[in-house]
Amino acid sequence: MAKVMLVAGLAKHIPIIEGMDYIGVDYGAVCCLRQKLPLVLAVGDFDSTTKEELDALKKNCKVHQLPIQKNETDSEEAIRCAIELGYDEIILYGGLGGRLDHELANLHLLLYRDLPLTLMNEHNVMKVLLPGSYTIQKQYRYLSFFAIEESVISESGVAYPLCEKHLRPRDIFAVSNEISQQEAEIIVHEGKVLMIQSDDENA
User: Residue ranges of the Thiamin pyrophosphokinase thiamin-binding domain (predicted)?
Assistant: First the structure.
């Protein structure tokens, strides 16, 4: 699988992952340059960068500059570019927190578009699971599930196992579980769920 990390402007320390390419999203591209990460592409309207920062980006990678007035968000256009370049595993890093409207827009891309997308920052990783069996590696302390539609799930290898439990969009009982060792087994029998692994910010 071809993997790419789209780095948005809220990124602090960008993780180095073997086999991962990097695309900067607006000011996130500057964050990549500061960490000396090689960029495949920089995408955005760059309204939050200085002329000097934009010139530095143009010297280091291909820049796809968007108009400030547009229908698509910078993240949405970066995802489109990534898919066009052939990536089939996309992590959007640094797109959570900050402005609530931007955060919700990124969540909508995850929840309501059929995209190979994961949202991630220093304390959270979020992914949509469709029906199937999954081995989930422990990345953060807590493991939570929210139903996007009427769903049935099972969890094992966790502090509070579930067996073919019905989960409705209004339910919140599947929050703050913990993976017991290093991995958990998850089965989505029916439906579509949002999986979140998270840590406390002071962890």
Answer: 132-194
Domain boundary among 122, 148, 177: 122
Confidence of residue 203 (pLDDT cuts 50, 70, 90): low
Q: What is the per-residue burial (b if ≥16 Cβ within 10 Å, else e) of 29-64?
A: bbbbbeeebebebbbbbbeebeeebbebbeebbebe
Asked whether residue 203 is assigned to any structural domain, the reply reads no
Residue-level pLDDT at 181: 85
Q: Are 51 and 14 members of one domain?
A: yes
If you ran DSSP here, which 8-state letter would residue 103 be given?
A: H
Tally of CB atoms within 10 A around 93: 26
Cα 22 to Cα 92, 175, 180: the distances in Å are 10, 31, 32
Using alpha carbons only, how large is the chain's radius of gyration in Å? Answer: 18
**For residues 128-136, average pLDDT:** 97
Rounded distance between C-alpha atoms, residue 65 and residue 46, angstroms: 7
| Cross-strand bridge partners of residue 137 | 183
Comparing CA positions, the residue from 190, 196, 156, 191 lying closest to residue 172 is 196
**What's the rounded Cα separation, in Å, for the pair 36 and 173?**
43
Q: What are phi and psi for residue 156, nearest 5 degrees?
A: -135, 160
Can you read off the two tokens belonging to residue 35?
């960490």
Whole-Å CA distances, 112 to 33, 117, 121: 32, 11, 20
Give the number of domains in the chain.
2
